Amino acid sequence: MQLRLMAVAATALTLVITPVAAAAAGPDGSGRPMPYRHLKQLAAERSAHAKSFTAKAADDSDEGGEDPEEIAEQAEQWAEARSAPGIVAPGAYSAAWQQQQSLPRTGGSWTHVTNRPYNSDDPRYRDIESNSSGGAGLVTGRVTGLAADNHGNVYAGAANGGVWRSTSGGGHWTPISEKLPSPSTGDLRLDSRGRLWYATGEANTSATSFVGTGVYVLSNPSGGSFTPADRVGGTELESTIIRKLRFIGNSVWAATSSGAWTHSLTNLHGPWTRVFAPNPSYLAGGANAADPNAPYKNIVNDFAVDPKNPGNVIIAAGWRSGDTYNGFYTRTANGSWQQTTLAGLPSTSGDVGLVTFAAAADGSRYYAIEQSPTQLATNPDSALGGFYVSKSGSPFGPWTLAADYKKLAASGSALTSAGYMPGIQAWYNQFLQVDPNDATHVWAGLEEVFESTNSGDTWTTPGPYWNFGFPCWSIDPSKQTGDCQQTVHADQHSIAVGSNHGKSYVVVGDDGGMYRRPVRGHLDQYGHATDWNSLNDGSMDVLQYYSVDAGRDRGGLAISGGLQDNGQSVLRPGDWVMGSDFGGDGGDTIVDPANGCNIAEEYVYLQVWVTNNCAVNDGAWTTDPTKATSYQVAPPDSAAGLARFIAPITQDPRNSNTWIAGGQHIWLNKVGYAIRSGQQWTSLYDLGAGHVATAVTTSGGLVYAAWCGPCNNAGYARGIAVGRTDGTGWHQLNLPVDGTVPNRYIGGMDVDKNNPQHVIIAVNGFSRKWTEGPGAGVGHVFESWNAGTSWTDISANLPDVPANSVKMVPGGGLVLGTDTGVFYRAPRCAGWSILGHGLPTTVTMQVKVGPDGKVYVATHGRGQWSFRL
After folding, report:
1. How far apart are CA 3 and CA 419, in angstroms?
2. Distance CA 553, CA 613 (A)
């Protein structure tokens, strides 16, 4: 996630790897994010207009990294909504997927709304809440796997958007995995035969990381596409994350969340073999599989192999926050594995978290990035243990420390202030790549891209986090990035080296897509690259939306939506390029149906902002604060930390001046888009200490608010409160754990515009494994005709997958967005169908109906789409 400098400075079953009871959240051990003291301070500075923007930009340089406590909390909440802590047996997802394939499909086709470039530096939108001019340029969603050959072919795997191919060194992308059941990417590798290996299940232990359905191999990647028949093995690797594939001898090794696995490279038939699991009793079917921390007990991150003796393999295992099994393992003479130390490389459980290895092609160097659980828990500046090199070429050492976070900060990094230094997210951002033709030339990816040409003795930062704070930066709308050069988006995940027509290049993948520069590129005086090119030309839309909404504008519709790490997009009639009018993360969104430039959007934790002109601004507010046209209007729960990471906001379909927002309290705004202060919200109801809203809906003066708390399976509780906008009649519905509505997360709800007593809820969570006791193993959609007094399960033939959003559509039909697709129930029908043709497999987070009568969906991995019923 990228913070807002200018403002306040699978489809797999979604078993997100984040702890509930274990150690990894805040330095205070609470598991909740620490308060943003610096954000509050900067907000006060802005409201007082005490500083010019240029001066504030320098002060705000400490906002370069995502708050590690925040991202841990975000991950935990994402998990809570879906599978909760627990082990899902292999094969469960396949069963749901097969059930979905047997469903009927309606007529009609989906229209891709966001199939065009998205410019994060769009000069039209330089209002106070935008990151425009930061230097990332054209962006798309997170890219977590990259592979490239020497014939111009580049293969990119998106976090939840599948695999794409370019035949021109990047750009003009074509999807090649549309037929697979999982679009979540863990790793991409080309083997010596030119086959492309696709490991599904994104291995970032963060929010929005989905598990996968195994490993697939494509024999002719330059011209073919993946099919389900290309899966290697059976369901052994289903419902896991896969961080790395490594080719060792005649085998491929997979580093997964369920241990280390191997498979033959020559015979692709037969199952995978698990060769190592640190704590097998916590695996599916094991005695401790129900333990809340079971998903974090068998994580393998990478492998290293002795180039002089390929039989000597090192396994790097461990949970990012530390566990007794964290460390390095080697095989003994009897075939068992034992923990070992590597000379010069910190090897205790407190030192070894997430580890990435990289070997030089000639065998003369080995490199490693090591994240430290101890630093994650105790060091507010960085979680990076260090960058290490073995100049013997052996992964057994001796290793030497080539750089710590302070050395990297001094290399031209944009992250140089207390609280945000290189490696602050070392458990989330890591890549390593050695130049195939020069063993001393290495690239390291953390939040930024670092480069060394002398085995790590000295470093530069060719890809800084952003250009804010550098002398070259300017907000001048006639310039994309002032006098600074294009940089990359923040948060690095993948890298590949390839060539085309004899010209070698390096491609990096991050939270904003892909960027390319020559292997031997040019740097300015600060060590920043002058030759990055964005490869995000709009042909590969893997944007990860949380929300969507639309309103009339210029004779058509303006369509907005909040995005993971890519702010808020706005697409107005006649635009060929989408703009970003709000920066950072974009959460929930509402738009005035009568005026598409009246937009209210959430940053995170219910931090709501409003604009009445689509946030169009040339940056004049930096010298005249009265020219800012975006206003912070967060309800009090936001500052108090009493809301979900992505908290719910809605407006009455009968009256766009009536808004409802949910944290611990249910908040009412009665002045609509004219709101200018968070003090204009009124608290309608207190859900209770520890309870937070997960979904809200309103119509005709009646409000429904779903909540959870605690929201994990250690005492999990959920409920629905109902009352009126005049503050009367509020009460909690009687939803016993053994009742019709399951004891799972209520992710979406909608009320009948013409009959407020009629309400539908969408229940998230994978019911094959949710919470213990009653409530598990039941449906995902429930209906009430008496304001929630009684409920009916209307799931019927739906597959058993998390349901995120439900919408009543004109004529009486229902549209349901889930983690595997969008479904439709026609009026007076009991069964569900797949809605339309052409929508790719990915997660649908939100369903809305636009003022044009079309259905709009926000997918978390393939952009926004529309459908005319």
Report:
1. 13
2. 11
Residues 6+ apart with CB under 8 A from 309: none
281: three-class secondary structure by DSSP = helix
pLDDT along the chain (869 residues), means of 10: 43 28 27 25 29 29 44 67 62 83 97 98 96 97 98 97 98 97 96 97 78 94 97 92 96 97 96 98 89 88 94 96 97 93 95 98 98 96 98 97 98 94 96 98 98 98 96 93 94 98 97 98 97 98 98 98 97 98 96 98 97 97 96 96 96 97 98 98 97 97 96 86 98 91 93 96 80 74 97 95 95 95 96 98 96 97 97
Q: Which CATH superfamily hosts domain 92-102+141-534? A: YVTN repeat-like/Quinoprotein amine dehydrogenase (2.130.10.10)
Q: What is the residue extent of each domain of the chain?
A: 92-102+141-534, 549-867
Output the six-digit token pair for 287: 């005695």
Q: Which tokens in the block code for residue 752? A: 């009948």
Cα–Cα–Cα angle for 608, 609, 614, rounded to 5 degrees: 140
CATH superfamily of 549-867: YVTN repeat-like/Quinoprotein amine dehydrogenase (2.130.10.10)
Q: What is the spatial distance between Cα 548 and Cα 570, in angstroms, rounded to a whole number?
A: 10
As a dihedral over the C-alpha atoms of residue 349, residue 351, residue 353, residue 355, rounded to 10 degrees, the angle is -120
Q: How far apart are the first and last CA of the chain?
A: 35
Q: What are phi and psi of 312, to 5 degrees?
A: -90, 100
Q: Rounded CA gap, 233 and 268, in Å?
A: 7
Of 64, 43, 46, 56, nearest to 1 by C-alpha is: 64
